[in-house]
Amino acid sequence: MQEYLTLLRNNRNYRYLWLGNVVSLLGDWFNLIASAELITDLANTGVAISSLFLARFLPLFFVSPLAGVLADRYSRRTIMIASDLLRAATVLGFLLVRSPTQVWLLYALTVFQFVLSAFFTPARTAILANVVPQKDLVTANALDSFTWSTMLAVGAFFGGLATAVFGARTAFVLDSGTFLLSAWWISRVVVSVRGREKVGGGWLDFVDGFRYLWSVPFILVISLVKGAGSLIWGSINVLEVTFANEIFPLNAPGLQAALHIEDGGTAALGVIYMVSGLGTGLGPLLMRRWLGDTKPRLLWGISIGFALLGGGIVGLGLATTFPLYLAATFTRTVGSGVVWVFSAALLQMVVPDKYRGRVFAFEFAVLTLMQSISVLGAGFAQDSLGLPLGTIALRVGLSGFAVALVWFGFHWYSRRKIVSYGSVD
Predict the structure, then answer these.
(1) φ and ψ of 174, to 5 deg
(2) Mean pLDDT of 8-20
(3) Could you tell me the domains of the chain?
C-alpha cells in the first residue's frame, strides 16, 4: 500500500488524474442505479432492463476503434475534459424523462453518454504513460483497478441509498456534478509534449493488429478471456436488478423507517453492487498474494477465477436468503475480478509494445460485444421462456463451468509453453 501512497504524494499530475477518475466513477454508479430504478418504474420488463445495459455497452464497441485513433492524433487532456463537460450536460437530460412514453429518451441519452465515455476511456489510458514514469506504470494501473472496485462498492452503496431516499432525479444531478468536478481535476494535469508516431489508416491499423493476433494463437486466446467471462457475468447485471426488486428487497419496516427508504429494491441493489466491488477489488489482491505473479501462476489464477465465477452464479440461483445471495455475489465477483486482472497482466507481459494498443482494443471490442449478447439473452429469458429467476441463474452458472472446462483444457495444453512467450519491445 505504501508504494501507491508514494505515487499519489510525489506525482502531482497522476494525483489529479486519479482524483478525476475517483469522482467520475462515483458518479457512474449513481447513474447506473438511478437509471435502473427509473426504467423499472416506467417499463418493468426484462427486455427493458437489458436494453438499458445494451445502450451502455454497444456504443463502446462501435466507437472505441475511432476513439483510439483520435486519442493518438489530438490532445488527450482536451478530449477528456470535453467528454466530461458534455456528459455533465447529457446526464441532466435524464430529468426530462417522466413517463413511459419517454423511455426512448432515456435510451437515447444513455447511448450518447456512453459514446462520450468511449472517447474518454482510451484518452485516459493513453495519457497515463505521459504523466507516470515507466517504472511506476504497473503501480498506477494496479491502483486504477483497485480504485474502480472501491468506487463500485462505495458508489453503489451511496448511489442506492441516495436513489432510495431522495429519488432517481437527485442521483442524476449528483452524477452531473461529478463530471464537472472530474473535468476540473483533469484541467490541472500538465502533460509534457512528446513525439508521437503518425497514425496511418485507422481501421487498417486495427486490421493489422488482428493479423498479428491470428498469427499467435496463444495470445489470441488470452485476448478472448474477458469476452468469455463477460458472456457469463454480463447476464447477471440484468438478473440482479430483478433479484433486488422482486426477491430480496430491503423491506424491513424498522430499517425503512430508520433510513427513510422508500424503495427497498433500489437499496438492495446498492448493497449488491457494494459487495460486488469488494469482491472484484479484494479477489485479485488475495489471489496474487497466494499464487504470485509469474506467467504460469497467472494461468492458474484465471482457471481458479473461472471456477469461482461459475460456482458463485450457481449460488445466486440457489440462495434462499439475502445474506446467502450476497455471499454468492462475493464469490462470483472474486472470480470475475481475478479473470479480469490476471488476463490483462498476462497480455501486458507477452504482447510486444508495438501491438499492445491494438490487442487491447480488440480485447475490449470482444468484451463489449459478448456482454451485449449476454444481457440481451438474460432479458429474453426473463420475459419469454417462463423460467423462474433462480433457474435462469443456475443455467448461467452451469454454462460458466463449461467455459471453465474449456479454459482449463487450454491451460493444461499451454502450461509448459507459457514461459517461452515474452514481449519484444
Answers:
(1) -60, -40
(2) 89
(3) 1-187 (1.20.1250.20), 202-417 (1.20.1250.20)
Residue 301 C-alpha cell reads as 489464477
User: Alpha-carbon distance 324 to 315, whole Å?
Assistant: 8
C-alpha 171/C-alpha 129 separation (Å) is 33
In 3-state terms the chain splits into helix, strand, coil percentages (rounded to 5) of 85, 0, 15
Residue 216, burial from CB neighbour count under 10 angstroms (0-12, 13-18, 19+) = middle
| Range name among 25-34, 154-163, 292-301, 385-394 with the lowest pLDDT average | 154-163
Mean pLDDT, rounded, of the chain:
77
Question: Is residue 283's pLDDT more than 50?
Answer: yes
The 3 state secondary structure assigned to 162-203 is HHHHHCHHHHHHHHHHHHHHHHHHHHCCCCCCCCCCCCCCCH
| 3-state secondary structure (DSSP) of residue 11 | coil
**Residue 331: band (very low, low, confident or very high) from pLDDT cuts 50, 70, 90:** very high
DSSP 230-270: HHHHHHHHHHHHHIIIIIS----HHHHHHHT-S-HHHHHHH
The Cα 117–Cα 391 span in angstroms is 35
Q: pLDDT tens across 208-251, in order? A: 666 777 887 888 888 888 888 888 877 787 788 778 777 777 66
* pLDDT of amino acid 172: 86
- The model's confidence at residue 258, banded by pLDDT at 50, 70 and 90, is very low
Q: Do residues 312 and 406 touch, judged by C-beta distance below 8 A?
A: no
Q: What is the dihedral of CA 36, 42, 44, 45, to 10 degrees?
A: -90
The label of the residue with cell 463451468 reads 401
The residue among 287, 326, 290, 328 whose CA lies nearest residue 309 is: 328
Look-up of cell digits 440482479:
240
